[in-house]
Design brief:
This protein is an all-alpha fold. It contains nine helices and two strands, in the order H-H-H-H-H-H-E-H-H-E-H.
């Protein structure tokens, strides 16, 4: 009978053998541990060490057959210690593989988070670039609209009680936009010192030939200097 077959025979016969009288103390423990190592795959992952455990068990059995109990006990104890060591090695390897698997999963999750972050940043950058490109076009369209609106309208306005320059500029027959008041102010500097103070009865000139640059400058000035 070969080493492996003989060892497995003793594992299968463990129940009966355990009932016999005078068996070495470590024989049963060694066989149990040997079986546990095999179940955990020790015969495949650590074949050399597994075979050495079987050899120690077989040597113990030969001595046991010859009634050399003490010598057999030494081999069974050796087999037990080898099996315990092999079991610990298998446990360490399982723990290493599990830790490796967890690291790989975490790295995968982190890579996915980074990919999503990069994608969000890319989309935000593209959005800002589009808005940056659209901003000048919006200003140009706004200026063009203002230019069309100021054509063929009254060229003067008589101030009424309580009116302000923004209110006059907001009138539909003037500019239709309160922010256009700087055009009126600049055209009437000879009679307006402070754009916050105008008087009933003043006849204010309403510029109708303002250029695109004049309109854009008026809008910027109105945003910078809000009249209350």
């Amino acid at each position: 009978m070969g080493t492996m077959a003989r060892a497995m025979f003793w594992v299968m016969a463990l129940g009966l053998a355990g009932c016999a009288q005078g068996l070495p103390r470590y024989r049963t423990e060694a066989l149990l541990k040997y079986s546990a190592v095999k179940v955990q795959g020790g015969d495949a992952s650590a074949a050399g060490e597994f075979a050495s455990i079987a050899d120690a068990l077989e040597a113990g059995d030969r001595l046991l057959e010859r009634k050399r109990i003490s010598d057999a006990e030494s081999y069974y104890l050796l087999a037990l210690r080898k099996a315990e060591l092999a079991e610990q090695v298998l446990l360490d390897e399982r723990m290493r593989l599990e830790a490796q698997r967890l690291r790989a999963e975490e790295e995968s999750r982190e890579a996915e988070r980074q990919r999503r972050l990069d994608e969000a940043q890319r989309q935000e950058k593209e959005k800002r670039e589009r808005e940056s490109q659209e901003a000048p076009k919006k200003v140009e369209r706004s200026v063009a609209v203002k230019e069309r609106e100021v054509r063929h309208l009254p060229s003067s306005h008589t101030v009424k009680r309580g009116e302000t320059l923004p209110q006059i500029a907001a009138r539909s027959d003037v500019y239709g936009d309160a922010n256009m008041w700087p055009l009126i102010y600049r055209a009437n500097r000879d009679q307006i010192r402070d754009p916050r103070r105008i008087w009933p009865g003043q006849v204010l000139r309403i510029p109708r030939n303002a250029s695109r640059e004049d309109v854009a400058e008026a809008l910027r000035h109105a945003h910078e200097r809000q009249l209350r």
